[in-house]
Amino acid sequence: MKALVAVKRVVDYNVKVRVKADRTGVETANVKMSMNPFDEIAVEEALRLREAGKVEEIIVVSLGIQQCQETIRTALAMGADRGVLVQTDVELQPLAVAKLLKAVIDKEGPELVILGKQAIDDDCSQTGQMLAALLGWPQATFASKLVITDGSVEATREVDGGLETISFKLPAVVTTDLRLNEPRYASLPNIMKAKKKPIVTMTPEELGVDPTPRLVTLKVEEPPKRGGGVKVGSVAELVDKLKTEARVI
Amino acid sequence: MSVLVLAEHDNKALKPATLNAIAAAAEIGKAGAGDVHVLVAGKDCRPVAEAAARAAGVAKILLADDPAYEHGLAENMAPLLVKLASGYSHLLAPATTSGKNIMPRAAALLDVMQISDISGVVSADTFVRPIYAGNALATVQSRDPVKIITVRGTAFPPLDGTGSAPIEAVQGDGASGKSEFVRAELSKSERPELTSARIIISGGRGMQSGDNFHLLEKVADRLGAAVGASRAAVDAGFVPNDYQVGQTGKIVAPDLYIAVGISGAIQHLAGMKDSKVIVAINKDEEAPIFSVADYGLVGDLFKLVPELEEELGKRQQ
Description:
Chain A is of the alpha/beta class and 249 residues long.
């Protein structure tokens, strides 16, 4: 079967983001961009399933500006087979991404779609669930383990109280949590090879999807700063302060 | 029109996060959206509906009692919300793993964008939400006819008082047949839940092993605190995933947060920096955690934590 993995280009997780002076967003010019960390886990899971003989081909899809190609190349260098870029300069929100992915899926016919559980820029955590709804497929969000046997899946999910296991039949949508796997680094030969792998570019118009945002961002601000506190010299002093100054114990 | 809140529960008890979502719903209600109703969907869950009926600020409880809703499977729950949506201007749920799983599925079926994890209500269509791990706050306005929202519990304290709302039975379409619950392995603990605890003590990579977490547990028992962890400690296998505090784990804001052997990566700070008082215990004086801590103690945690436990014991006598 084919697996399709969606990857998002985001501000690298090590970058300390700065809010723009005009309060329209955060500074992304001259900032290091990377693949969303949860999407790396999604790519890795697809690779492991291919290595285990459960998946034959891995298609990587990214959506957004032309530079999202770099994110697709990263996934190809990890080992994915080919890429699809849905190119647009319009700000894409999860509902639009889900509709665009559905349109690509209708063309490609994968039986398994893997996405990160959330993007670390907008922190929405919606796209996988929305995509599953639009496709009418089952969803396994926040997955930490996948067992696929003859078209059936047992997925273990990280939930607030611990772990939960559900079962369903393919086709399905899975979103990844941190403990699903540890993504590999691309080797130099694979980075070279990835340059020759095909990437097809499409547009929302070609896919028949209106990507207009439904949410309007009125402003983006810095959160209130926490003042740094004091260093205390001993445990006794700490307990004193907590009792008499902070009054929290 | 009214606001509908999806209750979080385990078929026996109402989870406290529901009360935070009700508080957010009440704010939206005051901004012009009208009454707050609560949907309790589960199996043999009337006691949950009765508990929700006693919550302040609630005008009506909708009870959908059906085996299909026992485990809150999104494939079954989302169509129920869609069926009820026509009577409401807003559908809310706590931003827990359950709310995050169900609500976007319902939103897509209704062809609306979800507004995730709101931390403020500006008006009935405008909300504040953290982005970039809480390093920025976005004010967003929804153009959709129905607003689907998840609520950051720490931003909306439960309302004072009690209520006595009527309970009305509703019916959904039951099981979708798309997925089945197999089993749950839930952590059992006598301690309070992380997201509702008044005091939390968390350990990081500096704890060096899962066994060493008993040092924190002893302090927790003295203080009636919950025990949490950084992502590093969970990834290293010291403690289970449900201990994780941070951008992609649990968001907490207790009265007192004690961070032990946690360096303070932005992803961890995102989950706890709204705590009232923060204490950091770390051997590295330069650790970023000290930049948000009200009280910092530099030194060896394996010496300081037992000392802390002893000191608290002495003063309790």
